[in-house]
Amino acid sequence: MSTLYEPTIFSKIIDREIPADIIYEDEKCIVIKDINPKARIHLLVIPKKAIPTLFNLKPEDKDLMGHMMLLLPQLAESQGLKGFRTQINTGEAGGQEVFHIHIHLLGN
Questions:
Q1: Residues acting as catalytic residues
Q2: Which Pfam families does this UniProt record tie to the protein (predicted)?
Q3: How far apart, in whole angstroms, are the C-alpha atoms of residue 59 and residue 65?
Q4: Cα(55)–Cα(92) distance, rounded to whole angstroms?
Q5: Ordered strands of the 22-25 beta sheet
Q6: What is the CA radius of gyration of the chain?
Q7: pLDDT tens digit string along 67-104?
């Protein structure tokens, strides 16, 4: 995977340099279980394109982000959830720890 940004733990997972519990994968994104879950089900939906934060999104990223949003209810249903929360932390002040956009999907 080529990137304009420094490799993150997520890009290393995507490149299979670091193991992870992969729930789903397609050509645009990968979904893994969070290693420090905050709910019974806590998944991370991660684009394969390395984009550090929402501040770095470009108009050409709208299809990628739409793809990830449409995937969320499918993932929730596959995990047996009747409802769920999503969270995107943006920037250090917003609680972001890994600077590669990702969506948290949480449910009990």
A1: 102
A2: DcpS_C
A3: 10
A4: 12
A5: 22-25, 29-33, 41-47, 103-107, 85-87
A6: 13
A7: 999 999 999 999 999 999 999 999 999 999 999 999 99
